[in-house]
Amino acid sequence: MTKPTNGRHTVAIGKNPERSREHNRRVVLDIVRRHGSLGRAHIAKLTQLTAQAVANIVDELVDDCFLMEVGRLRSGRGQPPIQFAVNPEGGVTVGVEIAADHMVTVALDLAGQLRAKSVISLADTTPANILSVFASELEHVANLARTRLLGIGVVMPGPFEVDGMTSVGPTTLSGWAGIDAAKALGEACGRTVIVENDATAAAVGERLFGAGLAISNFCMVYFGAGIGLGIIQDGTPYRGAFGNAGEIGHVTVVPKGRPCPSCGQFGCLEGYASVYVLREKLLAHGVSGTTVADLEKLHGSGHPVVEEWMDEAVIHLGPMIAMLENILDPQTIVLGGALPDAIIDDIIGLMGSLPTSVASRRQRDIPRVIRGKTGQLTAALGAASLPLFDMVTPKLETSPTASQISI
Prior knowledge:
five-stranded mixed β-sheet, 15 strands, Arc Repressor Mutant, subunit A, 12 helices
């Protein structure tokens, strides 16, 4: 269960009955991870578990290499308490971003530190080729990490299984309709694979290691090739009935506007504020190098196409943010993804005074819009966070998981 704290965030509370043992392990691991290091007595106070229950769980987590002793805390009289912290050598989770034109593979240790990464271009995104490349890249990065593999997460661009959306545009993957992606990827590598859409995974990454670490309710506007939304509600991702919650890229912002590059509709947000559109505009002006590093240089030099794209994107992002605030009432909205930090900062600055919404309060602990902290590897880091999130996030109820999604 969780305990509300002034409506701002929730604190996981343990359950003493034996039937909740796995939940209690997650509660203890999560509390230690968030605080850096803690003693047994402090853990018991924060989790409201008995001292004996905490002692048993901590010993188990140490035996399993999830926690480690980090010395004693000098405070007051008596024997200083032994402190425990997450063991970064306890294993890694691997995250893979499969995008329309590239694959990013990363390994994160239990402390959230990047242990290995690989970025390759994809010319062929058919299932047969991707499955082969995926298996090879996974093995390569897992070997570089040099520790046990605890789980695998994969992110792919949505929407998933939606009639009337072509799923063959430049921001999507063709040929995957009707395929159980989690099953196919799992068979390719011989392990269980969690599959999620990129925006939701990015939000999970921010929740565990980035701007959302101390924020339990936020939305993340994610700039991939297209544009999507990840929703964190009471500390956990909100996916919707079919894994498509947050598909803001296909919300009409200009009636009878430009044709959408992905879904075939007209006037979608993706046609005005996506990285794909920025790259197309640059290509039309003879600029073909559009990696994140390239975009950073172009922005730094004040390239007129980049400036024009930002000005147009802001026109449509401002009202979208106000709409999200009115519907979901988040603590803040995070912007992040495949854009340089400087561009995201300027987009936030250009939005200036946002339209009035339920978030228009004078007394705010957090600005209405902030930049994410996980950088350009956001989606892959989010993918690696998925199995870790399942390991450390307390949950007493079961619900459909991301791995059950077919695309």
